[in-house]
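Bench notes, afternoon.
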Amino acid sequence: MSSRKLAKLENKDQNKQTLKRILKCIKKYSVLVVFSLICAAVSVVLTLYAPILMGNGVDKIVGAGNVDFDGLKAVLVKLVVVVAITAIAQWLMNIINNRITYKVVNDVRTMAFDKLSRLPLSYVDSHTHGDIVSRIIADVDQFSDGLLMGFTQLFTGVMTIVGTLVFMLSINRIITVVVVVITPVSLFAASFIAKKTYNMFKKQSEIKGELTSIVNEMVENQKVVTAFSMEDKVNDRFNEVNDRLNVAGLKATFFSSTTNPVTRFVNSLVYTGVGIIGAVMAIKGRITVGQLSSFLSYANQYTKPFNEISGVVTELQNAMASAARVFELIDEEAEIADKSDAVVLKDVSGSVKLTDVDFSYDKSKELIKDLNLDVKPGARIAIVGPTGCGKSTVINLLMRFYDVDSGSIAVSGHDIKDVTRHSLRENYGMVLQETWLKSGTIKENIAYGRPDATDEEIIEAAKQSHAHSFIKRLPKGYDTVITEDGGNLSQGQKQLLCITRVMLDLPPMLILDEATSSIDTRTEIRIQRAFNKMMKGRTSFVVAHRLSTIKESDVILVMKDGHIIEQGNHETLLAMNGFYTNLYNSQFAH
């Protein structure tokens, strides 16, 4: 089988699976769907009944001096009632359809965001953040538009076609056959174009995700781009992707836009055929002029849904392509769940043991191999080494952001794979080099891990971390609202807030990964004193480039290429005159 045929089969199968998923989401609101169908049926039946009334009205005024005013009045009253009920039914149907659509979209977006919170860190690390954001925001919006159009026009369109055929058959079978024979041409044209446009819309969605990713990178790293004068290159990259989106969008829009003109042309043939044959039959007296008038109205109503449905099908193809991308995210394998008999860590002593640990992000490239470490409760462990040696990777493994490939990590005698992640991470306090703050007040950011903390506790924690003084200088102190990721604070101030967050709720174990890298020397000395107080009696892992900050550590691990090559306290390692000595001298040599 050729690759093209294989791709077509895969797309067809994906379409079926996506449609099944959408119907499954809609099934939850089946009661609302039934009400929508009832309103649609009432609207369609009455809309189709109106031409019969109009035809009767025409028959009552045909012929000189042959106007039945009483009969005409009765027809007009019926017509007004029919139009009023039709309008109410359509209004109710639109309200119900909106409710169904936005409830389904809300469920899908909630599922996507929920899955995002349960995805392993490896997924987030290996996918561009802009593409993930695009799936949850832009693709769900596109899915919403298509679904709403489907509910609003697809139901009524199909019912109108079926209902019109029934009404036409009740008037004249011969003309109805003419209509039915020509109509499949319109269906074939719409189906052919819809199949062609699905892949184009899917490609368009993928490029949109790529474009969102570039914009996201630019917004987050604008200072870096400007500092390196890379604006032109970034613009070139943006323009290249934007041009591809332009081409993909134009292709998809062009092919999809041909659906309506093609179906309109076929529908015009239907209308013409009805007009000619009906006129001939009216002349021969086989139908009345009023019936011909009704038939022409039905022919127009019969063909109109095909135009609408062709537009809906095109929009649904776009929506299906977007929904497929969202469902891909929802179907991603979640982080391995805790074992059913997982232990909740309590009364943690702080002992940590790594036994024969192997780990690599890329399984073809070895990173950490046969790592062994036995940490006693309350010990202060410093991890040093060149960039890329595996320091931060050890932290990821300790927190179980990643699982080891082989070997084991035990905390207080429990293998961390046998305990709940929540209880494991609850027993670690973590301050990273990369700060994270949310939009909100200073107070809310400090109390992020302990929302019930009192103002006095928050202020005391800030004083211990030396953040209190700068917070008080802010316009509203602790009630000052900061932007996303603390954009209106300096890097050092953001790091102080992250340190304060840990100070507020001190757990038995601490991880400090370059925690003072963005703080001036004077403040660093103060914070080191606070850290010393904070780390007293607590097992602490400190990753640092500045070797002056780890002199007092109980054990210093010197890592290189994923291995611990030297181990001991500061004096012992200097006496060994090895790798650590070279690192230390490179920082303090004059």
